[in-house]
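Cont'd.
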Amino acid sequence: MTNALHMTIGADPGEIARVSAAFAEFADAHALPASVRRSLQVALDELLKNTVAYGFKGRQVGSGEVTVEVERRADRVSVTITDDGKPFDPFATVAPDTTLSVEVRRIGGLGIHLVRQMMDEVGYERRGDRNVVVLTKYLGEEGA
Amino acid sequence: MNITTRTQGDVTIVAFAGSLDSNTSPQAQQALDGILAGGCRKMVIDFTALDYISSAGLRVLLGAAKRLKGAGGALRLFGLNETVREVFQISGFSTILAVFATEADALAGL
């Protein structure tokens, strides 16, 4: 059994569900703890949604290319998301005000805030004409 | 995802099963819009079978909460798993939405 999942999708919102399903299978096959799997599912949804919605704005739907790599190591799971959209560092954004009341709350920026808080490490790099985002989630005692 | 609804008195109880993310939130939005359009003022959402929620799902909940509050109604939630609770805490939703442990707690005094 391979320890890695590698898939390439078109920059199309409908493709995110395909990643989600493939990742769920991967998590099952590698017996990832439920909390680790769920946190990664949330992070994948947030980052892929952003990439597809903003990174490829102005381009034909499905014309971009997004690669998702998931690797399970002894003590952690690493996820690398690479896309050829316009340069964008998701982690350079300001955290939203999460103390506002229900009447005035907005959702903008919340997704990336969730990723930052739920992952153990996040990183961004512009490599040539590609954005590369790397996420790390440690398995802890539960998955070791 | 699967969405089932039932009513108890004047309360509509909506159960979400699966994930509430960018893929499924349009379906959830449509379901809640339909219930609200039908005149519902008291809504309880059962998260017992909800695996995880992302910001797209939070947006749907926030919209429903705003509409219910604006109409003098209420939205209550119960059955959140560890990850959903974590998302609520990080996003501040645990302070703006009424979260209960069990269905009986959520229905009490509504």
